[in-house]
Amino acid sequence: MITFWALAILMLLSALWCVTATRPIYSVVALLGNFLMLAIMYLTLNAEFLAVIQMIVYSGAILILFLFVIALLSSGIAPFSVGPDRLPRIAIPVLALALIALGFLAWALAHTAVATPGATANGAPLGPVGTPDVFGSVGDFGTALFTTYLLPFEITALILMVAVIGVVLLAGDQAPYVATKKREAQVKRDMREAILREGGQ
Amino acid sequence: MTLMSVPLVNYITLSAVIFFIGVAGVVMRRNPLIMLMSIELMFNAANLLFAAFARAWLNNAGHIFVFLVITVAAAEAAIGLAIVVTVFRSARTVDADEVALMKG
User: Fold this and answer.
1) Which one of B26, B33, B89 would you mutate to disrupt binding with A, by most A Cβ within 10 Å of its Cβ?
2) If you average pLDDT over each of A115-124, A185-194, B69-78, which comes out highest?
3) What confidence score (pLDDT) does residue A53 get?
4) Which of A39, A71, A120, B55 is the most exposed place for a label (fewest CB within 10 A)?
5) ipTM of this model?
6) Element of type H or E holding B85
7) What CATH number has the domain bearing residue A20?
8) Which of B28, B54, B61 sits opposite A90 (nearest CB)?
9) A140 or A178: whose pLDDT is higher?
């Protein structure tokens, strides 16, 4: 319980810092803190594999991607805008919306019986984090992923493939070059056809 | 041992508050990088809820769902950052209010 409250307060503070930070690099640091707290919270929820991929994929891959882009853009001629944020204009509606939604959530929670389960549904039995073949361990997760949920896993591969192709098309150095080459070739072909047509007449 | 020491309501509330912090970040900030990071915050709030409910019901499906969400989030971050870089190359700015190419 104490762990939960400590982690919750730290997560809220880091989330607020991430959103209100003046420079994007501070935002990344705050988000890193938030992700680490979340990884620890996954551990308290017996989800050890999730904690590991949270650190590796989120903190290791995605945040480094953000850092690279920040470094790339900040080294350009015109870095980030220093204009005022939309805070004053939109703070009241956002706050009202958040309060209404949270109030509705509290009302719904008060009128619903949330979670009095206890029996194992389809996972492995519960056990201390770190021991093999307990709920949330790598073995448990992998068994579920490669048997029951094999199709979503395959679709994940497709999504990542589409993302890679999209990124290369959007930001790759070759993309405009290839487009230009194609256009040049098209222009040459058109000219040649025009010349042939005129020669035929 | 099967019962959780922390009530599920705490996780739901924490997740909702973090989600709304993320929403506020997306709506208020003008820097697209911080907007993308706020979207990651929202993803993580949802993930926390998935993990909490998976623990409450001892059901693996929540963990699988978090895994899929993390994958989609990685793809989304990569594509979003590629769009930011492309926009910066052509417009020389990343201000979300100044880049209004698709405004009617």
Assistant:
1) B33
2) B69-78
3) 93
4) A71
5) 0.89
6) helix B61-91
7) 1.20.120.1200
8) B28
9) A140
Is A104 domain-assigned?
no
Closest partner residue to A121 among B57, B75, B97, by Cβ? B57
In this structure, is residue A107 part of a structural domain? no
Measured N-to-C along each axis, helices A24-44 and A63-74 cross at an angle, to the nearest 10 degrees, of: 180
Domain count, chain A: 2
Residue ranges making up the domain that contains A46: 1-81
Contact B23 A98 (CB under 8 A): yes
Q: Do A21 and B60 touch (CB under 8 A)?
A: no
> Is the pTM for the entire model greater than 0.90?
no
